[in-house]
Amino acid sequence: MSDQDIRWKQRFQNYNEAIRLLRSAIEGRAIDSLNDLEQEGAIQRFEYTYELALNTLRDYMQENGVVLKESNPRAVIKEAFALGIIEDGQIFINMMLARNAMAHCYDHAKFVEILGKIQADFLPALVKLHAFWAVK
């Protein structure tokens, strides 16, 4: 099977671009220096980067013979942590909770708080996951 036929590698290519875009939105920038549109764009970039991370994790584990009893985000994160693919399972659980909270968030203070978590905690964890796959 060629690399192009392996689903997780196809998803990883998309994840690679998503990480690049998320980094360009928030890395080295103060959250309060971003205008509302930039903040919303950074949140959206986080959301699709997180979704790609989960889908790539699921596909990678299945490609490597892992049988997932459940394919919900929490189960995927738990299994990826157990296998040592991700170092800090709680960070990924926190990402899931933040992602869910943002679906109907109208509180600007909460919005800015989550942006701070994306910058300080979530992006570094997503970059580490990217590094794991980059050598596969």
UniProtKB/TrEMBL annotation:
Pfam families: NTase_sub_bind
Single GO MF descriptor: transferase activity
Cited InterPro entries: HepT
Matching Gene3D superfamilies: Nucleotidyltransferases domain 2 (1.20.120.330)
Superkingdom per UniProt: Bacteria
Protein name (record): Nucleotidyltransferase substrate-binding protein HI0074 family
